[in-house]
Amino acid sequence: MTVYLAWSAAPVPEGVVGPWVGVRRLADDLVLLESGAGLSPVYHELKWALPEGTALFVTPLPERPKLKGLPAGTTAWLRERIPAQRG
């Protein structure tokens, strides 16, 4: 499974359906998506769920990001899905 970070210029719809098994909302326009699918299918399903022409950024997270001030439980959610980096 891969965790993707997605930002949109419009709010990501609640309950958005796509090739992911988990969605973690960080803000109306910022979500984490857990998926076994590649970047292209994740990007396109999210794009089709948004109003036409909406700016969208989707990228895989190869390692746990540093974060602060996000919704409670976000760090634990990421720890369960992205292994710690060594070194």
Number of strands: 4
CATH topology: Alpha-Beta Plaits
User: What overall form do the CA principal axes indicate?
Assistant: globular
Rg computed from alpha carbons, rounded to a whole number of angstroms: 13 Å
What is the CA–CA distance across the termini? 23 Å
SSE succession: EEEHEH
Outline the low-pLDDT stretches.
none
Can you name the CATH architecture? Answer: 2-Layer Sandwich
Approximately how much helix is present in the residues? Answer: 10-25%
Give the overall pLDDT as a whole number: 93
Structural class: alpha+beta
Broad CATH class: Alpha Beta
Q: How is the biggest beta sheet arranged?
A: 4 strands, antiparallel
Estimate nothing, just give the exact number of structural domains. 1
Tally of helical runs: 2
**In order across it, which strands form the biggest sheet?**
2-3-1-4
Strand percentage: 25-35%
How would you describe this protein?
This protein has about 90 residues and is an alpha+beta fold. The protein has one domain: Alpha-Beta Plaits (2-Layer Sandwich), CATH 3.30.70. Helices cover about 20% and strands about 30% of the residues. The chain has 2 helices and 4 strands. The protein has helices at about 40-50, 75-80; strands at about 1-10, 20-25, 30-35, 55-60. A 4-stranded antiparallel beta sheet has the order 2-3-1-4, sandwiched between helices. A hairpin with a 2-residue loop joins β2 (about 20-25) and β3. The longest helix has 11 residues, at about 40-50. The model has no long low-confidence stretch (mean pLDDT about 95).
